[in-house]
Design a protein that fits this description.
9 strands, globular, alpha+beta, GNAT_dom, membrane, transmembrane helix, transferase, 28% strand, 26% helix, 9-stranded mixed β-sheet
Length: 180
């Protein structure tokens, strides 16, 4: 069993260690990182998973969501999602995503993108972006660019570049625009 809770500042060092273990130093060179630099993850949509009790309690997973503009449509980018290697395939990542996607929908977000392996992310409703429909701020294998609508039809107006939101535009305002 494991517990999921909202990320807090004191979780930072353990999350960074998990991300280093999961992705190595090359994680900073990934195209998705361009959308995180100078951007702030949405605190209410950043989660950690723990296993154990008391002094035996260990961080075993982490997930963050970032505000982005998806081809002109306000939305979210999911990631990074990390789970300690020995617990992969045990439902930690899937449950972190289910919680995050449900909370994002409740907050008014309508569309989420990520870069990842379709066979894994299809389990929570992601599918491939049609070829040429969206572009990232750098090279990405088109088969790994995935999206999920939190509201039916939200993807219909998304065409073009995936970008960071305009500086100074709070995530709540982005969600409100997406809900309009």
């Amino acid at each position: 069993m494991f517990d999921i809770e909202i990320e807090r500042p004191e979780h930072g060092p353990a999350i960074e260690a998990l991300l280093d273990l999961s992705f190595g130093p090359g994680r900073y060179a990934k195209t998705a990182q361009r959308l995180r630099e100078g951007n702030e993850a949405i605190p209410e949509l950043c989660y950690v998973a723990f296993m154990g009790e008391g002094e035996e309690r260990k961080l075993i997973g982490s997930l963050r969501f970032w505000p982005v503009v998806i081809g002109g449509v306000p939305g979210l980018m999911l990631g990074p999602l990390a789970v300690v290697p020995m617990l992969r395939g045990q439902g930690v990542g899937i449950n972190l995503m289910r919680r995050g996607l449900a909370d994002a929908k409740a907050m008014g977000y309508q569309l989420v993108i990520l870069v990842g392996d379709e066979p894994y992310y299809v389990k929570v409703g992601f599918g491939p972006v049609p070829a040429g429909r969206l572009t990232m701020p750098g090279p990405v294998d088109p088969a790994r660019l995935l999206y999920r609508e939190l509201d039916i039809g939200a993807f219909g107006h998304a065409h073009g570049a995936i970008t960071k939101p305009m500086p100074g535009k709070p995530s709540e305002e982005i969600a409100a625009v997406g809900a309009a």
